Amino acid sequence: MKVARLVLKIVGAALALAAFTCLIVAFWDKITGFLSDVKGKCCGRECDDYDDEVLYE
Known about the structure:
It is built from three helices and no strands. The protein is mainly alpha-helical and 57 residues long. It has one domain. Helices cover 79% and strands 0% of the residues.
């Protein structure tokens, strides 16, 4: 009986890990977009896509 409980715990942990992995894969684009937004706001760096002519008028 102890072996069966151990096996069920291992199977449950494996299924939980698989579900978490599926969530990461499914929302990868949103996760990376969020992290890049946070990095851009926190670092205080300017973006390279500014139009320099408009900035220095």
